[in-house]
Write a structure and sequence with these properties.
160 residues; mainly alpha; 90% helix
């Protein structure tokens, strides 16, 4: 189990660097390059989930289609989040009250939609792998999200 924890930490670090790079690359790269990087991050994440879910073959057959659909919808939320961050970066030096309000409202909307997404998929994950492994999956997702959020918080300056 300690080896899994160390491996999890290592994979998380790789994912975080890739996610941060994705933000930088998005500004500079063409959409094809961005899509390649996104696919790499998602593949690394899927590997991380696979290593920590400990699924049987039968569970895997039920779990992975649900996981893929969930991640597809979650990536749409990530796109919206990136747009908010880009808008903040573009307006950071001269942030007006109206723009600040819009950014906060959009950010909270994304968070609400993320919770709705989790709720909408919970029964599907439970059906695929049972309550305990569905809980494990949400724990893994929450850990990944927490690390990404921490890195973003460390990199994004406070509004002036």
């Amino acid at each position: 189990k300690n080896m899994n924890a160390k491996r999890l930490a290592g994979l998380l670090a790789v994912m975080i660097l890739a996610m941060l790079a994705m933000g930088a690359v998005q500004v500079m790269a063409q959409s094809d390059n961005m899509e390649i990087l996104r696919e790499k991050v998602l593949a690394d994440k899927k590997l991380l989930v696979a290593e920590n879910m400990q699924l049987t073959d039968e569970e895997g057959k039920a779990f992975w289609p649900v996981y893929d659909a969930y991640q597809e919808e979650k990536s749409q939320l990530a796109d919206r989040r990136i747009a908010v961050i880009e808008d903040y970066a573009a307006n950071f030096q001269s942030l007006s009250d109206d723009v600040a309000k819009d950014l906060v409202d959009r950010s909270i909307g994304i968070q609400k939609d993320a919770v709705k997404l989790m709720e909408s998929y919970l029964a599907k994950f439970r059906k695929a792998v049972g309550d305990k492994k569905a809980a494990r999956f949400y724990q893994i997702e929450n850990k990944i999200d927490a690390v990404v959020n921490f890195e973003l918080a460390a990199k994004i300056p406070l509004a002036q």
